[in-house]
Design a protein that fits this description.
- By secondary structure, the protein is mostly helical.
- It has one domain.
- 67% of the residues lie in helices and 0% in strands.
- Helix 3 runs antiparallel to helix 4, helix 3 packs across helix 8 and helix 4 crosses helix 6.
- The longest helix is centred in the middle third of the chain and has 27 residues.
- It starts with 13 loop residues before the first helix and ends with a helix.
Length: 250
């Protein structure tokens, strides 16, 4: 669990928010949007496919059928252009998406058609084994499919923020620094401490503390940027972050 980035009171400047609010969702919903729309939809899929898959699994469907239903649902989104109908005035995008999935799952005809085809078309790319490994690691107390969906969403958002952070460090030629210090993003550092990392990196303990502070601050900014893509107002970012923290803490 990435706890520390959520515990700081730093805020993303309004200017940074203005470039991201619901932009990803709107771009993904554009008809004939070309490569930009395709990339936007792929980005949304990368964040939401596992929460949706976990929801379907928790309903009691076996892995192969859950994979087909997840693929079929994304095909359904494309076919009906449902993403274009997502309205920021009517709540959070994750709620819109879950509502669309519930409607899709309630339609037995679509489910039966997916089965008759012998498997859904590969609209999104995901590793079935990885999906099951993640599902097996989910908290057993999250028996309610919707609670599991919320938890999986929170983890996916955090994973996306950390992945962006890692990419930035790699782009700056700081792969070794990230590999050594990213553990300090977690609430529980285990056997790691600043002095030990300083020895590994050839840095003083004080310099390590400064580097960790910067890494946490940047992770918070990226986390807010990920959340800001699918909310309508700056205040909603903070609301989503508080919700995310509550979900992860159980």
């Amino acid at each position: 669990m990435i706890a520390s980035p959520l515990d700081d009171s730093a805020r993303v400047p309004p200017a940074a928010f203005a470039t991201t609010q619901w932009g990803l969702v709107k771009k993904a919903g554009e008809a004939g949007g070309g490569d930009d729309a395709t990339q936007a939809l792929e980005s949304l899929c990368s964040t939401y496919w596992y929460p949706l898959y976990a929801y379907i699994r928790r309903l009691g469907h076996p892995p192969p059928k859950s994979q087909d239903l997840t693929q079929s649902f994304f095909a359904y989104l494309l076919e009906k252009r449902l993403v274009a109908k997502a309205d920021p005035e009517h709540g959070h995008f994750r709620s819109f998406l879950l509502g669309a999935l519930k409607g899709f799952m309630a339609n037995e005809w679509r489910t039966s058609q997916a089965q008759k085809r012998g498997g859904a078309a590969q609209i999104i790319s995901f590793d079935a084994d990885d999906a099951e490994d993640r599902y097996a690691a989910e908290p057993v107390e999250l028996r309610n499919p919707q609670s599991l969906y919320e938890h999986a969403w929170a983890v996916s958002v955090l994973d996306e923020a950390v992945a962006r952070l890692e990419a930035e460090y790699a782009g700056q030629g700081k792969v070794r620094l990230f590999e050594e210090l990213h553990v300090f993003l977690q609430g529980d550092r285990g056997p790691h401490n600043y002095a030990q990392s300083g020895v590994v990196l050839g840095m003083t303990e004080g310099a390590v503390k400064v580097a960790v502070h910067r890494m946490r601050r940047r992770c918070r900014e990226l986390l807010r940027a990920v959340v800001a893509c699918t909310v309508s107002e700056p205040a909603d970012v903070e609301e989503d972050l508080r919700h995310l923290q509550r979900v992860l803490r159980g």
